[in-house]
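User: I've been trying to design a sequence by hand for this structure and keep getting stuck. Would you show me what you'd pick, starting by listing the structure so we're on the same page?

Assistant: Good idea, let's start from the same input. This is the structure you sent:
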């Protein structure tokens, strides 16, 4: 969901995953069936978007790192009606 890293030539390299890429580049990020996400995912999103001031940043949980966001970033969380058949089970 957030940044991750790999090694190239023995050195760590940070890789943007879809959420951080969208956040930095001002893209739309859509999450489907958000209400069915496991608690750890919901908590991560809650922490990530929580600001204690008027700054516009994304906090990467567990690292304390902050990423300034592009003002065009737009987050959409969708959910299905509880009676919808064929949806993921809790």
């Amino acid at each position: 969901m957030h940044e991750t890293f790999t090694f190239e030539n023995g050195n760590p390299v940070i890789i943007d995953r879809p959420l951080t890429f969208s956040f930095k580049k001002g893209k739309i990020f859509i999450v489907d069936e958000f209400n069915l996400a496991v608690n750890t995912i919901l908590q991560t999103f809650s922490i990530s978007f929580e600001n204690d001031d008027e700054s516009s940043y994304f906090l990467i949980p567990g690292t304390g790192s902050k990423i300034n966001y592009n003002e065009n970033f737009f987050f959409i969380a969708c959910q299905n009606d509880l009676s919808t058949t064929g949806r993921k089970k809790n």
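That's my pick for every position. To get oriented when you compare it with your attempt: Residues 9 and 15 are 15 Å apart (CA to CA). The longest strand covers residues 4-8.
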